[in-house]
Amino acid sequence: MNSGTTDGERVAQAAAGLVGARFRLHGRNPATGLDCIGLAAVALARAGLRAVAPHGYALRNSSIERALGALAGCDLAPAAPPAHAGDIVLVAPGPAQHHLLVATGAGRFVHAHAGLRRVVVLSGPLPWPILRLWRPGKKD
Fold it and tell me: 121 lies in which domain range?
């Protein structure tokens, strides 16, 4: 990836390169499958950023504090919408459901879709409320 690109652009490019990978809960390897946390972690790592991914969670969780704690160890900073290329977006698809997507710009998001069993691109406005958003950037 070009060294003249921003951290966010590199994360967005890395996420786009993962489209088509299989879905697997707790998946951290594109060759064997990724879940939404694995997708975000692999995209960050491929962009040269620090990525920490928690383990031991279910598809539905009443509390996501442990996962949010792991995100604090990543090269990410809290940000406000709208999402920019490379931003990690936390949404609520349903009750006790939390899901991460990677913004790739212009209303496009890459995410690990459990129902389709693949990493896919979602275009247009998000169908779920945004709970939090983080912007990539190296931490000192």
Answer: 7-136
